[in-house]
Amino acid sequence: MTMLHLAVIFLFSALSRALVQCSSHRARVVLSWTDYLRRVAPTALATALDVGLSNWSFLYITVSLYTMTKSSAILFILFFSLIFKLEELRAALVLVVLLIAGGLFMFTYKSTQFNVEGFALVLGASFIGGIRWTLTQMLLQKAELGLQNPIDTMFHLQPLMFLGLFPLFAVFEGLHLSTSEKIFRFQDTGLLLRVLGSLFLGGILAFGLGFSEFLLVSRTSSLTLSIAGIFKEVCTLLLAAHLLGDQISLVNWLGFALCLSGMSLHMALKALHSRGNGGPKPPKNLGSSPDLELLLRTSQQEDEESEEGYFMTQGQQ
């Protein structure tokens, strides 16, 4: 399922790039093999493992437990943001980490539908997700690579993500899928079309989700993306409890509320910190407050000034 989603995302990314290139008559960025393997490959591998392990966990746990556990990714994003100096260590960050860690313990405590294997898979995906989004932020905000556009980033990531997941697919699912009567040994054409249609629809949704996530990271930071997911987590939990009948105890809800309070506190402190500094500042070696929009505006102004100087020179001649 994940690999088919990756193929759909790559297809839509390539199609979007072609349409934009035809309309603007400007060639889209294509990285050299050196930059591709050195800069993109680590991000692609981390993204593939994050998505793959997350989807794999649904074989063992419910949507609600997955959503709650995956919220712990913000801890790892904070950790790796500090390591790569994308965030500054402050006392408020320590409080945020303690709130989220305590909430994580509470919403997995005595869960009626708890599964060790599924929980381990999601927790591993959250850890890798911290690496993934930190590397993604560095990739998107390096102006010299030219991958500020989410479509270009997705186009470059998907092939390596596909190759990164293929060994896991071949070992754990290859034989089962090759003998499945729903896919390769199908006898009911209608069933095959329904399965492929569901997977293709999931791929379209994954494309939209990936585009919005990359766009947010390119304009803000990976930490902001994680915090902005609070609303999505709440909606997912409510839908899982209402539509799928997932059982969530009062202690689990209180733990999740504690996690949300930690995330909300960090969001408020970050807003106050930005306001106290008189607005966002340009990143220093991808510093604590990256602002790609300012960078893009500056580059556009430089381009306009150079174009004006060129035309003035031509006019004088």
Automatic annotation (TrEMBL):
Compartment(s) where it occurs, according to its Swiss-Prot or TrEMBL record: Membrane
Pfam family, one: TPT
Region (Disordered): 297-317
GO CC aspect terms: membrane
InterPro entries assigned to the protein according to its UniProt record, in alphabetical order: Sugar_P_trans_dom (IPR004853), TPT_transporter (IPR050186)
Keyword tRNA-binding appears in the UniProt entry: no
Sugar phosphate transporter domain location: 2-265
CDD domains for the chain: TPT_S35C2
Transmembrane segments: 58-84, 91-109, 121-140, 160-179, 191-211, 223-244, 250-269
Keyword Signal in annotation: yes
Primary location recorded for the protein, binned into one broad class: membrane
Membrane topology qualifier: Multi-pass membrane protein
Signal sequence, renumbered to the chain: 1-18
Keywords: Membrane, Signal, Transmembrane, Transmembrane helix
Listed name of the protein: Solute carrier family 35 member C2 isoform X3
